[in-house]
Sequence to fold (432 residues):
Amino acid sequence: MKILKFPSASANKRLDAIFNRHLGFKAKDVKLVKGILANVRKNKDEALINYINRFDAPRLTADSLKVSKDEIAAARGLVDKGFIKSLNKAVRQIEAFHSHQVEQSWFTANENGSVLGQLVRPVNAAGVYVPGGRGGETPLVSSVVMGCIPAKIAGVKNICITTPPTKNGTVNPYLLVAAHKVGVETIYKAGSAWGIAALAYGTETIKKVDVIAGPGNIYVTLAKSLVSGTVGIDMIAGPSEVLVIADEKATAPYIAADLLSQAEHDPLASAILLTPSRKLALAVSDAVTEQLKNLPRKTIAEASLKAYGALMVVPDLASAFVLANQIAPEHLELHVEEPFQHLSRIENAGAVFLGPNTPEPVGDYIAGPNHVLPTAGTARFASALSVGHFTKKTSVIYYAEKALKRDAPDVIRLAEIEGLSAHAEAIRIRKK
Fold:
């Protein structure tokens, strides 16, 4: 990896490339996905099955669109015990973390005769999209638990999963076992934009949901963007990214491994190191080269690092934190002495990983916090997927007669300033 000095023209050029690597959608893709959404909305199961037959499972029918109880039961015998053990631990720790996010309804009674409050209620139905992963060969079980657990804790009564089927019309058994573990047994064999359309609009087989969550490719992301407003969505997520801040005492092979753990995701993924130590940057560059040799996804990782990777030498750690807050990374790792002392410097990040023994993958799978995180700088205003994404808040207002009498003149005055005479009259009629 090339080492850049920051600030400099070359560093700024690389940062611009990273910032702008996935902004907006191509017009042809928007047109294509709009057509898919309209087709499924109009023709429902018929359109859905046509897309599935064409792109995923040639022989799938509407009768087999939903995973059967027999398929779920059979899946248990097709996975190994080690997976069950790891899955159980992940579920326990993810549930424990998300249980702290539950919000309660609240009310305040005022002496003037008014009662104000807020009702916190779960949505009725949620759909979790789970990517297929190389035609079902690499099941993304973490997407199942990260999407479904916060919805369950929120109290959503109807949770379903939609995921692309394999060529023979099945769903990977590891996904089915994970879904069963988190208490979700309504699973549909529909992926891409047509799977999102089915969740948003409903078909004869798939019921419409209120919120759609979960990651996916560009067509899934674009479809979620287009149906947002018809249903709620978690976020518009872009390619994965990691930013590491490290001092001169950091361990270069650790940092190299962590950069590669994100670079292997996608050629559009971004992996950045910020350090005041040129010696460390050189060591990380060498370690990346060495570790790439045996990486199964070497081609993807190399493309990512070539286009959007960066080893930047900054003036000092303070400069690194300023730049990190401007980038607002999805994942931020601190390979520095006493990392907790630097936590207050962080303003914008999807998730923070403190110290050399906290690589980003522990957050992906087992630590507890959600791994569905804001990307592409949206951590400036967005947050990780949480229980709150599956709830809604309703304001509650009660006025006794004396409360209305006290506030009536002010309401009338403000309404008249806005030229809304009927608003004012709704108050006056009660005064009479």
Observations:
- The domain at 3-22+238-368 is CATH 3.40.50.1980 (Rossmann fold).
- The longest helix spans residues 27-55.
